[in-house]
């Protein structure tokens, strides 16, 4: 399983997940740069994603739905703030209404994804900083650690295919 460490800190409002993959950095980058590949790894296995918009460029927007086993759709968005391909990208990550507009009643995180390659393997660090400790606590209670870890763990299967 790729996830090797998970830390959260309410005082700094951060959630950090570290993972390692048996693939080069450019290959890992493509998982996020290609919307069809992103659909296979964004969201836990039982909540597959459907990417609607995808612009992994500064100022770009990514919108998506995750669909529950019962068919219920949950929308989200990324507002991309910085990109340094294939090393890192950052984005505001939020929940959306069904029309894909930001839901102001739900927490927003500023995410920084960093990929470091060594000996043909890639270490990924996923850092989410929430606007408030309450926002982080809310997503922790919603299962963000379990869901994110399960989503990231899907990457090995995709790399092997």
From TrEMBL:
Pfam families found in the cross-reference section: AHSA1 (PF08327)
Q: Which Gene3D superfamilies match?
A: 3.30.530.20
| CDD domains found in the cross-reference section | SRPBCC_CalC_Aha1-like
Segments forming a coiled coil: none
Q: Where is the Activator of Hsp90 ATPase homologue 1/2-like C-terminal domain?
A: 23-159
Q: Which family does it belong to?
A: Belongs to the AHA1 family.
According to UniProt, the name of this protein is: Activator of Hsp90 ATPase homologue 1/2-like C-terminal domain-containing protein
């Amino acid at each position: 399983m790729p996830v090797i460490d998970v830390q959260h800190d309410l005082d700094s409002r951060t959630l950090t997940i570290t993972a390692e993959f048996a693939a080069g950095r450019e290959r890992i980058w493509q998982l996020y740069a290609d919307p069809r590949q992103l659909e296979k790894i964004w969201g836990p296995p039982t909540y597959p994603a459907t990417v609607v918009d995808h612009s992994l460029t500064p100022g770009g927007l990514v919108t998506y739905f995750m669909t529950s086993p019962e068919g219920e759709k949950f929308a989200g968005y990324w507002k991309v703030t910085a990109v340094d391909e294939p090393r890192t990208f950052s984005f505001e990550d939020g929940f959306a209404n069904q029309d894909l507009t930001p839901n102001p009643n739900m927490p927003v995180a500023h995410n920084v994804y960093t990929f470091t390659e060594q000996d043909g393997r890639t270490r990924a660090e996923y850092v989410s900083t929430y606007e408030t400790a309450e926002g982080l606590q809310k997503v922790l209670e919603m299962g963000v650690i379990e869901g994110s870890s399960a989503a990231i763990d899907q990457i090995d299967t995709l790399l092997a295919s």
